[in-house]
TrEMBL record:
Residue span(s) of domain TonB-dependent receptor plug: 19-122
GO cellular component, one term: cell outer membrane
Single GO molecular function: siderophore uptake transmembrane transporter activity
Membrane topology: Multi-pass membrane protein
Name of the protein described by the UniProt record: TonB-dependent receptor
Residue ranges, annotated region (Disordered): 1-20
Coiled coil: none
Protein family per UniProt: Belongs to the TonB-dependent receptor family.
Subcellular location: Cell outer membrane
Length: 624
């Protein structure tokens, strides 16, 4: 297991470590980035083989590519509640960083443990836990492009349990300057400077959590999360939108019960519900617009038991229902999901070797899916270890691809599920001050869904693409002194289109940079510390033909900052950050310009700050 941030002792039953003991897992501690990151996507951007696709700064859509898999092939959860919507993609901009305690990232086949959709991996966003002590805190940030963010939180004992209330909000004009080539067909054409307009965004919401211990040694967790966002959709530089806007609201409810059974078993049951309201207005004729409502709800029951001293068996039964309604044309669709998952964690040679086979049988609508996985790990002593995994995952076509017409995009109910066959292996070394992991991975993606022209001016999705992905990953963390932390990650990723058309065969996939390196250093005590982060990402193609002139250039972003907790009881902290210090003017995804240099100042206050004990460690809180 790869850990970025503090190690997590006694992982809770729902944690990524317990779900996939041999998986390529990175845990990102958001508390160590307090007052520094603007959004959840920024926390994820420093991990190996994770590429954030950004549509234009704060509040604009952000999706995640993991190990070359498309954004709709990466599962994202909020405390176990699925966030992938009717289009199959999760928008990270809708999860503010104020909610996050840690991020658990699984790279590789996630179908066996997380279900359909996990071709490239899965991310579980674990929200802040409640406390039995009376705690309160607040934070406000102001910076470039008239960006303002803030939150307040309070936690304490309530009705023989403990509760948390958190309110958050933010806005930004997003009116940064960028450079554009008005005549891209001509070489050495001078660039002109423009200001991004209609790039504003605003939003807010609330998080409520309650936790109650039971006499049996078990616990009940309840969660309610509500968020809303209103943003302008500016479009690309070449195709700007003059009136298009999007309003989105999300309501998530979750509950989990869990308890031990003797010394060798435990059981849990969870239920969840999520409703999304999406309204798109304005824009050119023919573009998808109107109101869309997406609802998902389900239950999951899991039991674990140690059998014979060597086998730790886990069985999971899950069922859920999904429904989407599109006001345009009165379109609607719904289906059921049901699955059975079995996993065995076999320990050998005094638990120094583990074999972990798992299998999920799943029914998604009218699709029957089989997702097996085999993992293995070995403790070689003196801090050295190895792990390896091989598995198969599927992604059922999304509701929009199957049933819902969106302007000029037609649905295709004959689509087949996408499939991924993946393997990975890595070696690791760890001691009290160092953690180093290095390995490689490979995957074959089959029956990939892509849109192609459908006369006269329409587009329709078909199963015709196939791709290979392979690469290497390195993650290093060093804590040689209590006041000094350094982390770095590097990913080398190669992709190859295997579609039979000679125009595309053998070409690299678009939006998959070959190299990505991130280095980060934080030094100093609480009363004054400084940090710097460097992100280097190579150029990436934006079409399947592989024309170099149709590519997003490489980028190097340097960010610096400093923080000082200058008063205690209450704790008062001020932070100052400069993002993109060198003012690199770059673009992402479909040519969306990204902000240049930006500065932010953050002021935070915490009354009676929590100092976790063994019985009250925020990491131990199991999300509902």
């Amino acid at each position: 297991m790869d850990v970025i941030g503090k190690a997590i002792p006694d992982a809770p039953p729902d944690s990524a470590r317990r779900r996939d003991p041999t998986g390529a897992i990175t845990v990102i501690d958001a508390r160590e980035r307090a007052g520094e990151a603007r959004d959840t996507a920024e926390l994820l951007g420093g991990s190996a083989s994770l590429v954030v696709q950004d549509s234009g700064g704060y509040g604009q859509s952000k999706s995640l590519v993991v190990r070359g898999a498309s954004a709709n092939g990466v599962l994202v959860f909020l405390d176990g509640i699925p966030l992938n919507g009717a289009g199959g993609m999760a928008d990270l901009s809708l999860v503010p960083v104020a909610l996050v305690e840690r991020l658990e990232v699984l790279r590789g086949a996630a179908g066996a443990r997380y279900g359909a959709g996990g071709l490239g991996g899965a991310v579980n966003i674990v929200t802040r836990p409640p406390s039995s002590r009376l705690l309160s805190s607040g934070e406000v940030t102001y910076g470039s492009f008239d960006t303002v963010m803030g939150h307040v939180a309070a936690s304490g004992a309530l009705l023989d349990g403990q509760a948390l209330v958190l309110l958050h909000g933010g806005r930004s004009q997003g009116d940064f300057s960028y450079r554009v080539d008005e005549l891209p067909a001509l070489d050495d054409n001078p660039l002109t400077q423009e200001v991004r307009t209609r790039n504003d965004a605003r939003g807010g919401g609330a998080l409520l959590k309650y936790q109650h211990g039971l006499d049996s040694g078990g616990r009940v967790d309840l969660l309610a999360e509500w968020s809303l966002e209103d943003r302008a959709l500016a479009g690309t530089v070449q195709n700007p939108q003059v009136s298009r806007r999007q309003d989105q609201t999300r309501l998530s409810l979750g509950g989990r019960w869990g308890r031990p059974f003797g010394d060798t078993g435990e059981g849990s049951a969870r239920g969840f519900f999520r409703r999304d309201w999406l309204d798109v207005t304005g824009g050119a004729a023919g573009l998808a617009a109107g109101a869309q409502r997406y609802t998902v709800g389900g239950v999951e029951v899991e039991g674990r038991a140690v059998v014979g001293g060597r086998n730790a068996l886990a069985i999971t039964l899950a069922a859920s229902s999904e429904d989407v309604t599109q006001a345009t044309g009165a379109q609607s669709a719904s289906w059921w999901r049901a699955s059975v998952m079995a996993m065995d964690e076999l320990s050998l040679f005094s638990e120094r070797v583990k074999l972990v086979p798992s299998l999920r049988v799943e029914r998604v609508g009218h699709y029957s899916l089989l997702s097996p996985k085999l993992g293995a790990s070995a403790d070689l002593g003196h801090g050295f270890g190895v792990r390896a995994n091989a598995g198969q995952s599927h992604r059922a076509p999304s509701f929009l691809e199957l049933y819902i017409r969106q302007g000029l995009l037609l649905p295709n109910p004959e689509l087949k599920p996408e499939r991924a066959l993946s393997v990975d292996a890595a070696g690791l070394w760890r001691n009290e001050a160092w953690s180093i992991t290095a390995g490689g991975f490979a995957a074959v993606y089959e029956n990939l869904i892509a849109y192609e022209m459908y006369p006269p001016q329409l587009a329709k999705p078909y199963n015709f693409a196939a791709a290979r992905v392979w690469g290497a990953e390195v993650e290093v963390e060093a804590r040689p002194r209590p006041w000094l932390t350094a982390t770095t990650s590097y990913a080398w990723t190669r992709t190859q289109n295997r579609y039979g058309d000679p125009r595309y065969f053998g070409k690299e996939l678009p939006y998959r940079p070959r190299h990505k390196w991130v280095g980060r250093v934080r030094a100093g005590p609480d009363w004054l510390n400084a940090r710097t982060e460097v992100l280097v990402q190579s150029e990436q193609l934006i079409n399947r033909v592989g024309e170099a002139r149709l590519s997003l250039p490489s980028r190097t972003w340097v960010s610096v900052g400093a923080s000082s907790t200058f008063l205690h009881r209450p704790d008062l902290t001020v932070s100052f950050d400069i993002k993109n210090l060198l003012d690199a003017r770059t673009a992402d995804y479909t040519g969306m310009p990204l902000p240049g240099r930006a500065a932010y100042v953050t002021f935070a206050v915490a009354f009676e700050p929590s100092r976790p004990t063994s019985s009250e460690d925020p990491h131990v809180a199991s999300p509902p």
